[in-house]
Design goal:
Strand content: 15-25%
Shape: globular
CATH topology of the largest domain: Rossmann fold
Distance between the termini: 10 Å
Number of strands: 13
Radius of gyration: 20 Å
Helix content: 40-55%
Number of domains: 2
Order of helices and strands: EHEHEHEHEHEHEHEHEHEHEHEHEHH
Largest sheet: 7 strands, parallel
């Protein structure tokens, strides 16, 4: 039985990264039911239970070694692992995983990564060296491919595919509808999902409040959707406290226990404004017109590729910007829906390419 190790930002209770894992596990099992799947996770017990596979703690040197030492293939990613915005320590961790896999002579595939930004000059050289040693390199957008070449990955084919989440199957619609009813929400025709993460600045906070009030004036029901409860929940609570202080009703807050259910829930909305990439991907998959806050290159790249609406980052926002983004979204609603319907088959086809290339490294 061939062993495939999945290394990424797993077990951190981030819906986007769990969606990558869920989709990847599903398609691997569909293609090859004889594979032994192993995950490096921050919550090995939870990951093993949720997906019915083996898991080792991602921060345990012995656990990482046990996972990698007899692997037939290491799938590195997806997600934005090779960046130093989170921290240099995070980048060094992922580079160490790649280095150990190559030291052990394991096959390695850079699996639909989003690359950058890496601002540390030494880190850029280290990324180029580590990626160049992989057996196959795939990235989820053209900007990531260009960034790898700028770092020094030359003489290697870089396959531009798509995010693995495009292969995620939605959970049961009846579960999503029951969750909406439990929050007093009737569903499809008026929900504006807000996927916000913590951000600073008085102008940004006031713009979010203005957005909520503008949405209500347009007959929309703003609802917070938590992609990472620990941080996004704090932001939702902060905004709701400000609304209460000003005499306004709070915004309902929702989350999903599984990424499949997140996709089903988001698909029941009318619009989404998001600060997290995978909230935008899930919206696109559900045919929901969305606007993305341009916090980093991965969001900007996806907005361009999917034909979605850009929104200014917290550091650049001006009074009235977010209500204007909503008006733009409303005016383009039908055009965006038609565009997504046309683009989704190509995104899915490119996501399947990740699987085909991975399986090519596993001879039967």
């Amino acid at each position: 039985m061939q062993k495939v190790v999945l290394a990424g930002y797993y077990g951190m209770h981030n819906t986007g990264d769990e969606a990558i894992l869920a989709a990847t596990v599903s398609v691997l099992r569909h293609a090859r039911d004889d594979l032994r799947l192993v995950v490096l996770s921050a919550d090995p017990q939870g990951t093993a239970s949720a997906y019915g596979l083996e898991a080792f703690h991602r921060m345990s040197p012995l656990g990482v070694f046990k996972a990698l030492h007899d692997a037939d293939l290491v799938l590195f990613g997806g997600g934005s692992l090779l960046q130093d915005v989170t921290s240099k320590r995070s980048l060094l961790y992922y580079l160490a995983v790649l280095k150990l896999a190559r030291f052990l002579a394991r096959r390695v595939m850079i699996y639909a990564n989003g690359v950058g930004p890496v601002r540390w000059p030494t880190g850029r050289k280290m990324v180029a060296d580590a990626v160049s040693r992989a057996d196959i390199i795939t990235v989820r957008d053209e900007d990531s491919a260009a960034e790898l070449r700028a770092m020094g990955v030359v003489g290697r084919e870089i396959h531009v595919t798509a995010d693995p989440v495009f292969l995620l199957k939605p959970g049961p619609r009846e579960v999503a509808l029951a969750a909406l009813r439990s929050h007093g929400l009737l569903g499809a025709n008026n929900i504006l999902w807000l996927s916000l993460r913590p951000a600073s600045g008085e102008t940004w906070t006031l713009s979010v409040i203005d957005l909520i009030l503008s949405a209500r004036n347009r007959g929309l029901e703003p609802v917070f959707f938590l992609m990472q409860e620990s941080s996004d929940g704090r932001e939702a609570s902060r905004v709701n406290e400000l609304l209460r202080t000003s005499g306004q009703p709070p915004v309902p807050v929702m989350k999903a226990s599984r990424p499949e259910d997140a996709l089903a829930l988001i698909s029941e909305g009318r619009f989404l404004i998001g600060m997290r990439l995978h909230s935008l991907i899930l919206a696109a998959m559900g045919g929901v017109p969305a606007a993305g806050v341009e916090l980093d290159p991965k969001i900007t790249s996806f907005l361009k590729a999917a034909g979605l609406v850009p929104a200014p980052a917290p550091s650049a926002v001006r009074p009235g910007d977010l209500p204007a983004v909503l008006e733009d979204l409303i005016s383009k609603e039908e055009n965006i829906r038609r565009s997504l319907e046309a683009k989704l088959p190509e995104f899915r086809s490119r996501a399947w390419r990740n699987l085909d290339l991975a399986l090519s490294l596993l001879p039967r």
